Amino acid sequence: AGVTRRPITPRRGTVLNKVADLIDPATGWWDKPLVEEIFWESDARNILAIPVRLDTNDFVAWHFDTRGMYSVKSAYHVLEDQRERSAKKQEGGSSSGAVNQRNFEWDKIWSLQCIPKVKQFIWRLAHNSLPLKLNIKRRVPDAETLCPVCKRFDENGGHCFLQCKPMKLCWRILCLEDIRLSLTQLVSARDVVQTILKLENDRRMEVFFLLWVWWYARNKVNSGEDVIRVEEVVHKVKQLICDHASLRKGKHPKVNVQRNKWVPPVDGNLKLNFDGAFRAVNKSGGYDFLVRDHRGCAVLAGAGCLEHVHDAFAAEAEAGLAGLKSAISHGINSVQVETDSPS
């Protein structure tokens, strides 16, 4: 259970070592009484919901992915976790307010209602991977470190976005000074982004737009173009806020959803339609199926409960299997199959 996906039940004195020991050889399915005897209720429920595939050979699986599939993305998250733990170990622990990799809600960044460029900027900001002067110096020891805008202090994230004099003026004009002051108390870029994400939606987007517009303007100065004009930055931020508000108003337009009309099979044939339901809270579900002829007349129907089911896809598969088994038991040897699931 949890991150490791290991059972939380203590091993105690059990002598069973293999998953195969928990499968009933007569039925080819989990030995339910044995599983419930050995494991705690939550573990037993999760185990019994896993489909058993006796026709599949063992294969090497990537432990850190629920499907056992290796990907660069999952490996990246594993390395980030390891780096986070290593940093905490060297520091002798972490502050109670620090946001670690596991608890950071990365999905909130990608679900923001804004253009991809802004999301990518926020992601890089949270990782402290923007090409700020002090970040560059870590790789290029003799690199210049002064802020390209004010040319008074070394440029890190805190100075660039919260302390640089023209930027502080932008915060004040937009009436965001209280937020700026609270962000200056945080210890990392990840904490800053996490705190902004917790703001009310309009304020959250206004802050993110300000940071992004400022970074764009800062880059122009860094490349030798004109000095930043505060009023232009503020105007651009307000323009983005207006565009964002318009997008939100049109976010849920009323749409007449047309359901696909049932298409009958060709004359003399039968069609099986089925549907499965899944309840994640207790890994249970249900199913129903209906067999009709080319005139739409019902030939066979059925429904039932699923006591242990892994997910919605598995529930749909169980529904189809139940329909086919019932059709065969009633002497139906040829039938078209159609699921009610949109997926």
From TrEMBL:
<dbReference type="InterPro" id="IPR012337">
    <property type="entry name" value="RNaseH-like_sf"/>
</dbReference>
<dbReference type="Pfam" id="PF13456">
    <property type="entry name" value="RVT_3"/>
</dbReference>
<dbReference type="InterPro" id="IPR002156">
    <property type="entry name" value="RNaseH_domain"/>
</dbReference>
<feature type="domain" description="RNase H type-1">
    <location>
        <begin position="273"/>
        <end position="341"/>
    </location>
</feature>
<dbReference type="Pfam" id="PF13966">
    <property type="entry name" value="zf-RVT"/>
</dbReference>
<dbReference type="GO" id="GO:0003676">
    <property type="term" value="F:nucleic acid binding"/>
</dbReference>
<dbReference type="InterPro" id="IPR052929">
    <property type="entry name" value="RNase_H-like_EbsB-rel"/>
</dbReference>
<dbReference type="GO" id="GO:0004523">
    <property type="term" value="F:RNA-DNA hybrid ribonuclease activity"/>
</dbReference>
<protein>
    <submittedName>
        <fullName>Os01g0967700 protein</fullName>
    </submittedName>
</protein>
<dbReference type="InterPro" id="IPR036397">
    <property type="entry name" value="RNaseH_sf"/>
</dbReference>
<dbReference type="InterPro" id="IPR026960">
    <property type="entry name" value="RVT-Znf"/>
</dbReference>
<feature type="domain" description="Reverse transcriptase zinc-binding">
    <location>
        <begin position="70"/>
        <end position="171"/>
    </location>
</feature>
